[in-house]
Design brief:
heterodimer, A: Rossmann fold, Dimethylsulfoxide Reductase, domain 2, 3 domains, 9-stranded mixed beta sheet, 17 helices, B: alpha/beta, TIM Barrel
Chain lengths: 451, 568
């Protein structure tokens, strides 16, 4: 009889569903079946049982092939890489727990590192916009219980956050929303006719890159002022109609994704979307929520916030925390060739960074700490496979609305595999030993001559 | 464990009634003791002031809204970031310092215990992660109850036992310390963009009034016999003329008797009363009503208050009073953050500049000081800034200066841009009282500790109490300037926390061994409440019931649970 683990959190997207049930083998080593999860989440659970998993660190050889090394050797290489580096970049952090993030920060303080998370190529512009104009928001349960107007802008949850619509935003029946989706009006703004848009009461297929104009038009319409015949390819009647729907709602919400954060205008789009939300609060209740991508990218921003005061791109190379997006962000550092070592942690820049940045990663000393082989591991000097967080180890994770949930351990990792927290803790301790051995003056003078 | 002897200082300890006598204080195994062996390490405190470690009763220092404040205000870190030296962590931030800086700054001023004033239960894990990362000081957090759907429904039906059982359950689930109420009913109304501005405004849908919520929660608090009383931020905060709402709220505590084994006497703690003592009906005729407020407090021993002193800084306001923050952003047009939390509460954040050139800000400054100076019983009136709302807690030494020196506050008062108007709208100019060292120890140590139900643990130097001790480089028997006073209280000569020296000569030297305080209140099994809890999680919460309770070493590595037995 296989046993079932309930109330499991899903380590895929920022929805951080925590109602997954997982059937595991009697000896607690294998995931057999996954219930309640979406197709992507289920695949992630089931993949832990894949036969081709790498279970030991691999060091890249001169000829480009990889040789298996022990965790001890991997820890030694990583600790030396940090100690010998003048400005190491520590990128990723969105697919791990807050405890590992916290230990990473200790290493950054000890070695003058720069910690940046995946928001740097995702919702970083949203975080900058929030610094400009604030953010009126709420938890996902508020949407479920109160919202009767839901607007999706530049995001496609039907594919990217597959259970969002059914669990939180459109279909669920909540306390004041007993009619479920029948009582909700859905507005979708996107240049593509996505599967999310096909569900919309008011679909607005705008011209690509015109989000700022359309958001401005919304603000004009909210004030009841005159619009030109068309804005961003949308006839003004449609804009007035959408705004009428918003104003007639008791509780409205805007969800927005990378379609607005990473297209023309970037943080300015989000500024404007937040101001639409603020304006709407003159008429009714309105909130706005970023559709965060990875399941714990939000947590990385939180831990950085309480430890250093900034949500991403924090530079410790001067000994104290500095933040200046455009200067201390990963791609800018890599493309300016400003960092001399990189640890990629719980992420895959090889898939998502521009080629100019990826080339630089391939040139400098590099460690990739991720469970599986991905494009980043194949250009890194060292790949350290680790247990899969929230499946093979637990820990704190933050949902897209900043609600923290303690992830459960479901199965044991393959024998002898470390968790990323264990690996990082040992690296931290080894760095402390190495630093204690080297007299402080030696390192300083070596740096002074550029050694 | 090591022994210490703090020799020959001027000791101020209301708990043992010592008022400035030269005394030795002995420490062994983390506690104050009568005497120690000759091998004890000796600190010479001759010519210095010795007090117990101070107790912060109300500050927003850990949790989701504090962190949103940090993350959305990079400007708050300009020019104040510093690297960690000697095993200490990197620090930064002014009005919303990082967790490490929070712990270090409290310790530097001789504060050794603090209460986080508003914990949204759904975000309790976040609060505890930050508490874990705040070094040195012992810390507890107050979960908010005043807009919680369970509470609203039970109290509407006058179900006292169920309310108490739910409180007990939620304190355990969130690892909370006591019952906090913020804008009762008004924050739930904010779910629809509305508010409750008097104690009789009905809460939309729930059909209950703030008055019923407050009285019900006081009753449930005393039914359980919790160490702390119901702790309230009343309706109508920050508005001209709101002192009548405050008096109405005070009156709700009449007729209740404190019931607990912790020596607590009050049944209501009203926080940051400065924000609730306003007369006038516009910003034009805005004036102090601190006399009316404090008259009531002085004659009603069932009440304790803290001041909420305005420090005249640029700061970051944050409160579970969601509608107030929206009101504030409409006033000052600075960036507004808000989070409504399902079934429980809400919170808002807006930066604010308390400018000495603005009449209203200067009047607010005066009101806070008036409350401290007009209070007849310093054991019932505590100094706070409602950090960071009226100013950062790091300004306590400056508030102490103003309270202890008429000269210092007159200098400030007379150099306001609108000094004449401010003097006309306030009472401060006519108050000669100067708070004494002994009264200061009551207002910052013995008083708050007693109000929290911790009078045998913190806030005093009697043998058997925790060895939390602060030594300040100021001689109460020699002349000193007001600025020397501020300087001495800014950086203690020595701070010992639970028997461990953590600050020497104003420098933090140890990360301490902090504990997380929470209250474990046992009640009889209550199947109805458990059924209601299960139903609400199944239908309305966005997390499962089994993923709600805060548990585990990674959240609370060093718990200090206070046991309460309400099963009889």
């Amino acid at each position: 009889m296989a046993k079932t683990v309930t109330d499991v959190t899903c380590p895929f997207c920022g929805s951080l569903c925590d109602d997954i049930e997982v059937q595991v083998s009697d000896d607690g080593t294998k995931v057999l079946e996954v219930f309640n999860a979406c197709a992507i989440g289920a695949a992630k659970f089931l993949h832990t049982a894949a036969k081709d998993r790498v279970t030991r660190p691999r060091m890249r050889q001169e000829d480009g092939s990889y040789k298996e090394v022990s965790y001890d050797e991997a820890i030694e290489y990583t600790a030396h890489m940090f100690v010998n580096s003048k400005k190491p970049l520590m990128y990723g952090w969105s697919n791990t727990n807050c405890e590992a993030q916290s230990v990473g920060h200790e290493i950054a303080e000890a070695t003058g590192g720069i910690v940046d998370n995946t928001a740097t190529v995702c919702h970083g512009p949203s975080l900058i916009a929030i610094q400009d104009v604030g953010i009126p928001s709420c938890t996902l349960g508020e949407i479920k219980n109160r919202a009767d107007v839901v607007l999706f802008w530049g995001c496609n949850p039907a594919h990217a956050h597959p259970r969002h619509l059914s669990k939180y935003s459109i279909f669920p029946r909540g306390f004041f929303t007993g009619k479920g989706h029948k009582g909700r009006k859905m507005i979708v703004v996107d240049p593509r006719n996505t599967d999310t848009m096909k569900l919309a009461d008011v679909p607005l297929q705008l011209e690509q890159g015109r989000d700022y104009e359309l958001l401005s038009a919304f603000r004009v319409a909210i004030r009841g002022e005159e619009l030109p015949e068309k804005v961003a390819g949308i006839p003004r009647e449609k804009i007035y109609e959408a705004v009428e729907v918003m104003k007639n709602g008791r509780f409205g919400v805007i969800f927005f994704g990378m379609g607005v954060t990473q297209s023309l205008g970037k943080n300015h789009n989000i500024d404007n979307a937040i101001m639409v939300t603020k304006d709407m609060n003159e008429y009714t209740k309105f909130a706005i929520i970023a559709m965060r991508g990875h399941y714990n990218v939000t947590g990385s921003g939180q831990v950085m916030g309480w430890q250093w005061g900034f949500p991403f791109a924090t530079d410790l190379s001067r000994g104290f925390a500095r933040y200046n997006p455009g200067e201390t962000t990963s791609n800018d550092l890599l493309r300016r060739r400003e960092v001399d070592a990189i640890m990629v942690f719980a992420s895959d820049p090889g898939s998502h960074f521009p080629i100019s940045s990826v080339r630089e990663i391939a040139k400098i000393p590099s460690v990739a700490v991720v469970p599986d082989i991905n494009p980043t591991t194949e250009i890194s000097k060292l790949h350290v496979p680790v247990a899969v967080n929230a499946i093979e180890t637990g820990g704190c994770c933050y949902r897209m609305d900043n609600v923290p949930i303690d992830a459960r351990k479901v199965v044991e990792p393959p024998e002898g595999m470390l968790t990323d927290l264990e690996f990082l803790t040992r690296v931290r301790d080894r760095i402390a030993e190495l630093k204690a051995q080297a007299p402080a003056g030696v390192r300083a003078s070596a740096e002074a001559v550029g050694a | 464990m090591a022994e210490y002897l703090i020799r020959n200082g001027f000791v101020f300890d209301p708990v043992s009634g010592v008022n400035g006598d030269r005394k030795d204080i002995a420490v062994k195994d983390g506690k104050i003791v009568e005497s120690v062996s000759p091998s004890a390490k000796v600190f010479d405190a001759a010519g210095k002031t010795v007090m117990a470690g101070a107790v912060e009763i109300h500050a927003h220092i850990a949790g989701p809204k504090v962190n949103e404040g940090r993350n959305y205000r990079p400007e708050d870190k300009l020019f104040n970031a510093a690297s960690g030296v000697g095993g200490m962590r990197t620090t930064g931030g002014f009005s919303i310092p990082t967790t490490f800086k929070t712990g270090y700054n409290y310790a530097k001023m001789g504060y050794t215990t603090a209460i986080e004033a508003a914990m949204p239960p759904l975000y309790a894990r976040h609060v505890h992660e930050e508490i874990r990362d705040t070094p040195i000081i012992d810390e507890g957090a107050l979960p908010v109850f005043g807009n919680n759907w369970f509470v609203l429904e039970y109290l509407k039906n006058r179900e006292l036992e169920n309310t108490a059982a739910y409180i007990s359950w939620l304190l355990r689930a969130s690892k909370g310390y006591g019952v906090k109420v913020v804008n009762p009913g008004g924050t739930e109304a904010w779910g629809w963009g509305l508010n409750c501005l008097t104690v009789n405004d009905p809460v939309p849908y729930f059909d209950i009034t703030p008055a019923q919520i407050v009285r019900g929660l006081i009753e449930a608090n005393e039914y359980l016999g919790l160490p702390h009383s119901m702790h309230i931020h009343a309706n109508n905060l920050g508005n001209p003329g709101n002192y009548t709402t405050t008096l109405d709220t005070f009156r709700l505590a009449e007729g209740f008797k404190a019931n607990n084994r912790f020596g607590r006497e009050q049944t209501m703690h009203h926080t940051h009363v400065q924000f609730h003592s306003y007369g006038g009906d516009t910003w034009g005729n805005f004036e102090s009503k601190s006399d009316e407020i404090i008259d009531y407090v002085n004659t009603h021993p069932n009440l304790t208050i803290d001041t909420g002193n305005v420090t005249l800084d640029e700061t970051t306001t944050m409160t579970a009073d969601g509608p107030f923050e929206h009101h504030l952003t409409e006033l000052n047009h600075l960036k507004w953050a808000n989070v409504d939390v399902e079934l429980e509460t809400a919170a808002g954040i807006v930066p604010y500049v308390y400018s000495p050139d603005i009449k209203v800000c200067a009047i607010q400054w005066a009101i806070g000081l008036e409350l401290g100076l007009l209070a007849k019983d310093p054991m019932r009136c505590f100094i706070t800034t409602d950090h960071p709302n009226a100013g950062p807690f790091t300004r306590y030494p400056r508030i102490i200066k103003w309270l202890m020196s008429k000269e210092a506050r007159e200098e400030r008062l007379n150099t306001f841009k609108h000094a004449e108007k401010v003097i006309g709208a306030t009472l401060l100019h006519g108050i000669d009282r100067e708070i004494t060292f002994y009264e200061l120890a009551q207002m910052t140590r013995a008083g708050p500790a007693k109000a929290l139900g911790l009078k045998d643990v913190y806030g005093g130097l009697a043998p058997g109490m925790e060895a939390d001790i602060a030594v300040y480089d100021i001689n109460p028997e020699s002349p000193f300037t007001p600025d020397q006073l501020e300087e001495a209280f800014s950086a203690a000569a020595l701070v010992i926390k639970t028997g461990l020296p953590v600050v020497e000569n104003g420098v933090v030297i140890n990360n301490g061994n902090k504990r997380t305080l929470w209250v474990d209140a046992k009640v009889n099994e209550n199947p109805q409440v458990m059924r209601d809890v299960e139903e609400k999680f199944l239908k309305y919460y966005s997390v499962t019931l089994n993923n709600y309770e805060v548990q585990g070493h990674h959240y609370i590595p060093n718990p200090y649970a206070i046991q309460v037995d309400a099963t009889q």
